[in-house]
Amino acid sequence: MSHWEMAPRGALKGSIRVPGDKSISHRSLLFNAFAQGEARVEGLLRGLDVQATWGCLKALGVEICDEGDVVVIRGVGGHFRESHSVLDCGNSGTTFRLLCGLLAGQPIFSVLTGDKHLKKRPMKRVTGPLEAMGARFWGRENASLPPIAIHGGQLRACDYSSPIASAQVKTAILLATLQAEGEAVFREPHRSRDHSERMLRAMGADIQEMADGALTIRGGQTLAACDVVVPGDISSAAFFLVAASIVPGSDLCIEGVGLNPTRTGILDALWSMGADISVENQREVSGEPIGNLRVRYTELKGTQIEGELIPRLVDELPVLAVAAACADGETIIRDAAELRVKESDRIAATAAGLRVNGIDVEETPDGMIIQGGRLQGGHVSSAGDHRIAMAFGIAALAGGASRIDDVENVKTSFPNFRALLSEVCSG
What is the distance between the alpha carbons of residues 201 and 181, in angstroms, rounded to a whole number? Predict the structure, then answer.
């Protein structure tokens, strides 16, 4: 089992770029693979999750060429080849769920699996509505848990109201509907990240947004391949935003970060805590807003994080909890039950790590109540979750020496996390 030994190292200074956005990287591969034509993708994240998507697509007959800074994808024009082997999605829930949507409309047989963590994650939220459209699934607990077999074919578009705000569920249904008869309407309780709608529209898909926020999409549409420049991942930038906010003397610039408004909840939450973060050089690249983020150390105060904000920062909540541990007063996180079914139970893992660090935290069914204090360091288990590992790596910068166990999965999203920390820490 791999681990990190980490300790305070001084203020964070200088300018950095974080790896490409994971969500956009997955979609740039998947959508262009399904489309007609050739696309060039710059800035693709090279983490293990995106590599899993790449490997599955190659097994389905997609030609993908690595030219260094650019990846070239030659689409199959809507017709994947049946794979001779099981499609291994590794640790990537995005790969698994989006492939369910794509393969639901393909008249081929496929089997999707993943690692021990992915095999515990709920898939009925995707397979259920896809079955209602006519796809067939087989798997553990009525196709609720991987591995899952799929036989796609003729689909019928349908109206679906998702009980959760999930870009993965939404995208799976959009991709299936492109191959279906009729028109679909998709609703969710709060708006989830909209990278899929932006990219699909750029590729020629007719997706309309209704006054109440519901999406309508016609079946039987084809996609035209589209070049993509992937911005820096704000979920990766979040670790450095929090680090510079809690380590005295820090003044850090993170360049070229994606600022899609469905993803910037981390900024709103940190601003509500009094963080000193400014947005500079805003612009648009490949249909996505980007900019530079300058963050300076300041004393934080407790806040409440709940409601419609949660889908906009759900992946950043573990490191936000570290910021809350350093803040003056109480921070309450609500409406985040989705954290229970991520790569780990992130509520339990985050609360356990904070307690090891001497922080008073109460775990609730859908969040936690954190009393700000002083991080003390300690021996933390990441539960094999990349975001828990990195969150407590940041905690160690503002606390005491820490050992963080089971950090191998950091390679799924941020392979150069520690190297980048070393580059900007002055100590």
Answer: 19
Residue whose token pair is 């393909």: 106
CATH superfamily of 22-209: Enolpyruvate transferase domain (3.65.10.10)
**CA-based end-to-end distance of the chain:** 28
Nearest to 224, CA basis, from 11, 6, 31: 31
Alpha-carbon distance 300 to 71, whole Å? Answer: 41
Q: Which amino acid is at 252?
A: L
Give me 302's structure tokens.
């407790």
Task: Report pLDDT for 342.
Answer: 85
Q: How confident is the model at residue 195 (pLDDT cuts 50, 70, 90)?
A: very high
CA 56 – CA 21 distance, rounded (Å): 19
Query: Which tokens hold the place of 255?
Result: 């360049």
The residues spanned by each domain of the chain are: 3-20+231-424, 22-209
CATH number of 3-20+231-424: 3.65.10.10
Residue 409 C-beta-side C-alpha neighbours within 13 Å: 22
Q: Is 204 helix (H, G, I), strand (E, B) or coil?
A: coil
pLDDT tens-digit readout, 265-287: 999 999 999 999 999 999 999 88
Contact between 377 and 7 under an 8 Å Cβ cutoff? The reply is: yes
Sign of the CA dihedral with 378 first, then 317, 412, and 65 last: negative
CA separation for the pair 252, 15 (Å, rounded): 6
The pTM (predicted TM-score) of the whole model is 0.93
Catalytic machinery residues: 315
Is the pLDDT at 341 greater than 90, yes or no?
no
Residue 230, C-beta contacts closer than 8 angstroms, at least 6 positions apart: 20, 21, 24, 25, 28, 41, 42, 43, 44, 45, 286
Each residue of 306-337: pLDDT tens digit? 999 999 999 999 999 999 999 999 999 999 99
Please give the Cα distance from 77 to 260 (Å, whole number).
29
Q: Which tokens go with 254?
A: 């993170």
